[in-house]
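Lab notebook, bench 4. Still working through the backlog of constructs that have no structural model yet. Next entry is a single chain of 368 residues. Request: give me the structure tokens for it.
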Amino acid sequence: MEETSAPALKEIFDAARFRQMAKDVSSVYPRFDSKKFLGLTLPPLAEQSLLQRMRSMSHALHASLPLPYTDVVQVLRDTAPLVDRSFVTLVFPDYVSVYGREHFALSMEALKYFTPFGSSEFAVREFIRIDFARALKTMEKWSKDKDEHVRRLASEGTRPRLPWSFRLDRLIVDPAPVAPILDNLREDPSLYVRKSVANHLNDITKDHPEWVLTRLQQWNLDHPHTSWIAKRALRTMIKRGDARALAVIGVTGPAEVAVKTFQIHPKSVRLGEQVSLALSCQSLAKKPQKLVIDYIVHYVKKAGHANAKVFKWKELILGPGEVVALEKRQRFQDFTTRVHHPGLHKVELMINGQVLAEGEFRLTRNDH
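Model written out:
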């Protein structure tokens, strides 16, 4: 996994958590060397990130359990139900991904077992790299499993661009090998699984939008679960105003509307304050039409240029001559993923993929 986690998350693996893990493993395997385990993990803890702490736990488990790999896996399987934090259980799949690469079948079965306790989505990718065809064949079987966690693993683990993990370049080049997995999950009753399938397809749209559109056209979009997946899968394309993606969700053409007002208030805000958007538009169509209403904020960057980000506003059916009035508030504050810079910010109104109005506001910072 790549280091992209927020610093505060590392406290999930704090000193108390390592001590508790030592107790949990010892309760299953009394000969576990707790002193050695803690001696290896606690001294460097303060300087380590979240993922370094988890990997350190994996290494220390290996060093403190001088047993054959098959026996260690059994100890970890017995320990997993005792751990009271789901994220911490990622250490068990992590151990398998580091030390079980020469035991493909046993390790894959272990990852299947561990995934309901947290997730094996990161660890399984190591085995996809080791034996691509065999791993995908196994995961296709998982996509039909009775456990939703296992079915989700089949989709999430094969995502070409899974956050916090390395990319699966082979699937970025050609997503066809995962088609059977996605097909098996297209009507899944579990929202947990459907979110993964939609995110997986959304990943693919970044490289192969036509492939995704063709796949969805082969699915029964009248099924509510499939329709939900399709809409979420195409969200990036819909935000870009892609006519083909909009057609999939029932938007058949440009919006026939007259924008009566599009107002931004106030015209100047400080970081931490809100901007209010107000829209009023009237249908010019002779029959009901579906409208996808979004807005685009052009964020000022440090170098002075702007970077556009699309935000969802509303989807609705507007009758002939009908008027709709909408309001939206958005607070502008810094996050780890976005730092705001002072300057004039343009805001565009987009309906059914077309920009129909625009406005602006000025953002200032307390430190300027």
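Notes after review: The beta strands are 257-265, 268-270, 274-283, 289-300, 306-318, 323-331, 343-351, 354-364. The first strand starts at residue 257 and ends at 265. Flag for follow-up if needed.
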